Amino acid sequence: MKRKPYNIGNYADEIYTQPYEDTREEKIEQALRPNSKIVRYRVKTIISGPIVESEIYPIWEAKRYAPPKPPKKKGSSKAQKNLNDKNARKKLVRLINANFTENDIWATFTYDEKHRPHTEEEALQEVQRYIKRLQAYIKRNNLPELKYIHIMEFNEDDTNKKKVRVHHHLIMNFKDRDKVEDLWKAGGRKNTRRLQPDDFHLEGLGRYLAKDPCGKRRWSASLNLTKPKVITADSKFRSVRQVEKMLIPDQAVAKITKLYPDFELLEEPQVYVNDQYGGYYIYTRMRRQI
């Protein structure tokens, strides 16, 4: 029975972290050393609205030859926390880019002293009541179904441990900013603004909302959001040698442009190596041409 090649796509970016141009000469030679256990390279494409990410990584002959998935570190080690934050940020950014445009809004709400929640659970209940009010208004007025992402920032108050400081951020497809503010009934500040995409669409907003604060962040989303589209292909490179040519920046740009003719590069392809296992990981971000 023919052995099925082993796919490291779910953790390739955790294994290949050493930038090719920063690698010492002897390690470059090791990375370049032919590895007969790499059978081909896979191209994974992630489409999130107008933004496309491309990941090119090796497929191995069998699991025993491939780099293993890094084990999760126990406790709250800095390395594990950084990895968790990176993955959460990546997921949030892609979801925002896939679902929202300049026609949508971003709202921020706080509390006055009278309504200030005592626990994280109370804060979540308050925003859930708010979303129900929005949905009821939408139903009465025959408006498009509400799509939203909710991010909550939660901090204990150093001067009073029985109370908390909470901010709620909501990205939504609701158009009426005045009504959005009017339906928040817990006092505090009410601030709404139109989304303002740039070359990277709404990545800047996603990174800001997913940043590591002094306290905690929790996010949730409506179930009707469009998920980023993921496509994998094993036929884009006829040989491992074709990938090696992409170590030259001009050739990398030319190949990516050929692979994605309807998209424009937002940055040069980034090449990473692993001096222990060999092979490469190439990551690129692009935007759909208007």
Descriptive notes:
It is a single chain. With 290 residues, the chain is α+β, with helices and mostly antiparallel strands. Helices cover 29% and strands 29% of the residues. The chain has helices spanning 12-15, 25-32, 78-99, 120-140, 177-182, 203-209, 240-244, 249-259, and strands spanning 6-7, 18-19, 38-48, 51-60, 105-109, 148-157, 160-172, 190-194, 216-221, 229-233, 263-265, 270-273, 280-288. The strands form 2 sheets. Strands 1, 2, 3, 4, 10, 11, 12 and 13 form an 8-stranded antiparallel beta sheet that branches. Helix 3 packs across helix 6. The radius of gyration is 23 Å and the shape is elongated. The N and C termini lie far apart (48 Å).
What are the defining features of this structure?
13 strands; 290 residues; elongated; alpha+beta
Total helical elements: 8
Biggest beta sheet summary: 8 strands, antiparallel
In helices, the fraction of residues equals 25-40%
| Mean pLDDT reading | 87
Backbone shape: elongated
Uncertain runs: none
Q: How far is the N terminus from the C terminus?
A: 48 Å
The share of residues in extended strands comes to 25-35%
How many distinct beta strands?
13
Category by helix and strand content = alpha+beta
Oligomer: single chain
| Rg of Cα set | 23 Å
Q: Secondary-structure element order, as H and E? A: EHEHEEHEHEEHEHEEHHEEE
